[in-house]
């Protein structure tokens, strides 16, 4: 991806069909940049926010990754600003890795309630690694099951960043019965009495 030094405001850059950004880190002065919108989205779709890729800036090639994104409020699929962080071979990337639960629809089709408590984990990893999202197959789960972080298959090169000493016990997803309303006829009234009960 080739980025260009800019002086224009974010609004002016948008009118040009480009995306505004900034590049910094590892000995490079923070600089305002811009890139063709189609080229940026193509790179983002391929690399995401967890992979290092070459970026041409001021006639030199830099190893960078997308550190941060700002999306448009009304159209969140559109990127309005991005941060590129330059890295060296000895650096480690600090990024959030997404957790995807598969098989959720199968359980919900049975009337179960699937609640995902944790959607991403904070990690560090070497720049020559390109971790993909972490997936967990929930299709064989039963009511009452709780999936902890320790149950996920996490690559050994990922260093989980957390202040919690028991981070492996972090709840990722739970499976439970739905709450149901039961109606009981009140002998002293013609109106049914309603109360909420939860199945075990």
Write a concise synopsis of the structure shown.
12% of the residues lie in helices and 48% in strands. The protein is mainly beta and 200 residues long.
Q: How would you portray this structure in words?
A:
The chain is mainly beta. The chain folds into two domains: 4-88, Ribosomal Protein L25, Chain P, CATH 2.40.240.10; 95-181, Beta Complex (RNA Polymerase Alpha Subunit, Chain A, domain 2), CATH 2.170.120. Helix content is 12%, strand content 48%. The protein has three helices and 15 strands. The chain has helices at residues 10-15, 37-47, 104-109, and strands spanning 4-5, 18-25, 28-36, 53-57, 60-71, 79-86, 92-102, 113-116, 120-126, 134-137, 146-148, 159-160, 171-176, 179-185, 192-198. The strands form four sheets. It has a six-stranded mixed beta sheet. The mean pLDDT is 88.
Pick out its properties.
single chain, 200 residues, mainly beta, Ribosomal Protein L25, Chain P, RNA Polymerase Alpha Subunit, Chain A, domain 2, 2 domains, 6-stranded mixed β-sheet, 4-stranded mixed β-sheet
